[in-house]
# Entry
Amino acid sequence: MRLHHIVRRRYLPCVSNLRRFVTSSTSGSLAALLLLISGYTLAVMACSGAQSSPASAPNQEELWAVAELDPAAQWLPVLATQDLAVGITRIAFSLDGLSATDEPPTIRVSLFALDEDRASPRSIQYASFRAYDPSVQIAAHEHVNASVSDRSLPIGRGVYVVPVRLTAAGLWGMLLEISSDSASETTRLRFSVRERQAAPRVGERAPSVDSRTRDDVSTLAELTSDPDPEPGLYALSIAEALEQDRPLLLAFATPAFCHSRTCAPVLDAVKAVWREFSSALIGIHVEVFENPHEPSRLVESGAFSAWHLPSEPWVFVVDGAGIIRYAFEGAVTEAELRSAVEWVAQDGVD
# Structure
């Protein structure tokens, strides 16, 4: 069942009395606001609201105040980036309802700091679409504890990525103007921004952790769920790598069990970039689970937990002094990683 069908079934009764807050347009006609669910970063609104005249035009406060699903909406945006904090970052979101044969629509993104100004956008730009390899599948598995992957939503055939500058903690929003050859929709996406993210931040020292290596296991299958592992990514622990005074390309990913289906393509990008720059930097892949060879009882790995990562995958580029220079949550392309590694390998700081 598609996510927008689930949301419609669960939430439309709750908000049926709020249809006077008309804030979306579908194929040129006005429709109601979209209800979005994507972890703790989204603000899900309650069923109460201020009364207003049905004939009155909604003001900016009303446009951002109430979220309601449009039953006729073709696409449902779902936030894929969970760890949002003050600073420069990349926000990723997907479109539920985008089939494998559809051409990804164009999306213009207007960013708003809702606590400060709900009428004037901070920035306006077009999001870039990152397609996934359609052959990537999720292996059947069970988790012993409530791990990150239990909270990860499937995010379809790809994600849209947009770079943003978040200047303050609080409530933010994105106005998404979605258009294709046959349809157009406009909707608003709300999310919370914290003062600092849970994961280690750019500019901070990389946590030194004794992650497992190939010397600790009899086969790489005990160390990674990657069906085609690169042995060189399991030669050193994170702690050992940070003592080498060399740049480090570090990936936390679980290729076989990643609900978002981004881990396998991200790890493939990491392997390609590391092979290209292996003489200049160390590469490490840390599996999200301690026992990937036992899919019926997966346990989150100690190194993954020690880095306090609220989602997966994550990729970090660390300089020779042990300082994180780049951090990528979720989907990241080979080109983006190559650019980051080139900067760090040449002692460049953005």
